[in-house]
Amino acid sequence: YSRMEKSVQPLTAKIITVSEYDRKLALTEKIAPAHKMQTIHNGIYQIEKRVVPIKETDEYPLIVMVARFEVPKRQDLLLEALAEISDVPWRLRLIGDGSLRTNLEKFVADKGLMDRVSFLGNQLDVTSLLEESHLFVLLSDWEGLPISIIEAMRAGLPIIATNVGGVNELVTDNESGFLINRDDKDLLKKRLKQLLMDESLRQKMGDASERRFLKDFTFLPMYQKTLFVYEQAVLKSAKKGD
C-alpha cells in the first residue's frame, strides 16, 4: 500500500496513525513528512461491567483469545504451549473463525484437550465472554493497535501478547501483563504458568490493565483529538483559500 499512500499524501493536510509504531514506520517508508503525521490511539466506549467472572471451581482459570483463525494470529502457538503445561490447571475459549479452525480442532482432539478447549466461533457479545474470563492472550505475528487488547483491558484482564506493532503501547510488560517475542514458546509457557498459578498476580495485573484503559483508551479522548485535527485542517484549508 505504500505506493498508493505516497501518491495521495500531497492531497492531505494531516495523516493520523493509530499507533506510534505505525507513525514511525510511515516515516521510515517516507510516506509523508513528520509535520503531517500524528498518532491518535484507538479508543472504545467505557461500559459498566455486567458479568461476574466465572468462579474458579476446581481452580481452573479461564483463558480467552479473540482473533480470526488465520495465519498471523497464531492460535496454534497458544495451543502448543498449553498442551505442554497440561499439569497446570486451565481452560481456554477461542473466539473467532477462519480457514485454520479445522486443523486446530484436530490438534486439540489429537492432544486429548477437548475437555479444556472450547471453539466458540464468532460471537456477538464478546464483552460478556471477556468479563467471564481471567486471562487474555493474543500472539499475532504482526499488529497495528489491536482493538481486542483494548477490549480486554476494559474488562480488567491481565494480558499476554507478542511484542509486535503497537502492542507495547497498550501492554506494559510486568505491569499489566507480559510481552513476549514472536515464536518464543518457552517464554510463553513460563508466563502462562506464572499467571495461571497466581491469582493475586492476575488480579494485580488486571487492575493495572483496566486503569490504563480508563486513562488512555476510552472513546472520548480519541474523538476529541480526532475532531481537533479535522478542525485544524479545515482552518488551514480556509486560510489557503483566502
From TrEMBL:
Pfam families given in the database record: Glycos_transf_1 (PF00534)
Lineage: Bacteria, Bacillati, Bacillota, Bacilli, Bacillales
Keyword Cell membrane (UniProt): no
Domain called Glycosyl transferase family: residue spans: 55-211
Family annotation (PANTHER family): GLYCOSYLTRANSFERASE
GO molecular function: glycosyltransferase activity
The entry's keywords: Transferase
Residue ranges crossing the lipid bilayer per the database entry: none
Protein name as it appears in the record: Mannosyl transferase
Keyword Transferase applies: yes
